[in-house]
Amino acid sequence: MTYRGHIKNGVAVLDEPADLPEGTPVVIQPVETFGFQENLSIARLLERQQVRPVTQPADLAGDWPAEDSLDDFLSSVLYPEAQQMYDRVDTTTAPRPGRAP
Hints:
With 101 residues, the chain is of the alpha+beta class.
């Protein structure tokens, strides 16, 4: 079981009550915030998250099927509701989202 909390005056305080017997050993591990609450510059945030420039446009597609076109990929990103509708219809007769029949 995982409990969430915060440090207050040097003591770990749970956000919600926990039914643990007195003296129960616990492990406290800080949550990585990735700088969002630290007001870091974009450059420092990118460095901390180890973001690297995209060198191959194909990397942006992730596991998008290679047989689908770039237009299909972009339309599913730009118009996700159209992709959801497409997923619910008979794909043997319906055109891909954003594409003319």
